[in-house]
Amino acid sequence: MRADNPAAIPRVLIDATAVPADRGGVGRYVDNLIPALVRAGVELEVVCKPADRDHVAALTGERPVIAPASTRHVAYRLLWEQAGLPWLVKRSAADVVHAPHYTQPLAIRRPLVVTLHDATFFTEAALHSSLKGPFFRAATKLALRHAACCIVPSQATADELVRVAGADPDRLHVAHHGVDHDLFAPPSVEQVTAARQRLGLPSDVSYVGFLGTLEPRKNVPALIRAWIRACAHRAKPPALVVAGGAGWDDAIDAATSEVPSGLTLLRPGFLPLEELPGFLGGATIVAYPSVAEGFGLPVLEAMACGTAVLTTRRLALPEVGGDAVAYTEPDEVSIARALTELLDDPARRTILAAAGVRRAATFTWDRCAQAHLRAYASASARGYRTWRRDGSSTEVRFRK
Predict the structure, then answer these.
(1) Which phi and psi angles does 107 have, rounded to 5°?
(2) Dihedral angle over CA of 253, 257, 260, 265, nearest 10
(3) What CATH number does domain 189-360 carry, 3.40.1010.20, 3.40.50.2000, 3.40.50.1950, 3.40.50.1000?
(4) Integer Cα distance of 353 and 186 in angstroms
(5) Which of 105, 212, 217, 360 is the most buried (most CB within 10 A)?
């Protein structure tokens, strides 16, 4: 679907109230998707929290619809999603409602699109918290049953949802994430210097970088122990910088306690978006040995910044990295071997860095928006789903 055919483009209401305050994860997705949809000619209504009013207005050029202040609390947001959002939808001119983060309003009579970011709540249940796992499995099953169609960020995620959750493949639309090429590009000397100064790293100390929420599936303890194996004997060992928002991986502290005195491990926490190109592009290697990803945006962003990337072949990661990254198995010994090979081979790092920039250029938010347009059009054609007492469903076309 193209923007030069405006009559075919549905008007879309996006519920952005699930975006977290630090704008990580779903926030990055929504923040980049919205302006890409605007560029594609989509007429949007965006619902957001009061704190996001000015931010969303800048993304759309229009005033957003403001949800109650109580939606800053997760439990109240979920209640409002079922009770308050349907009221807004009923008064909206939207043809399609897009819920961009698993959960969705049930009592609406509009075609519904839901984004499901990964299937790891089913395939890697042990790596999620005892609260999040059951909740997101239930939300995913409900979306697959209730929505006109669902958007997923990779073919790997689509395939897994069909395999483990009984998804209808005809209702799944793959929309690869993009990368903001104005921000994520090989950094300037000044950007790298600023990142080093923030980290407290001298200019003569290289580093291996990691970026991501510190949760078990990111495999950070194995990375720390692998880095110790690969670097403890080196005359000038690179530091390891583990950056990202706090998660729930209690094993990281135990691995950190094993770092010998001759090595430097830094954990700066969450880094502001504008500092990421300097951090990623200044690393000798960006290591992302995740055991399960629905997409793997840090891999793509590091590639765009011109850094050699080491990751795994699990789920969607090869879909992102292709032949422009190095791969390892996720165990500590394999990661150590792969790190050693890359640290000892600057020529290969240079080749991978250049290949990464070229491949990253093919991932754009405008292409992602076009995939969303196809999903919206499909949902609009299908209509909204209603359920009978016997559990069967029917689709009803929405007419204004």
Answers:
(1) -95, 55
(2) 20
(3) 3.40.50.2000
(4) 10
(5) 360
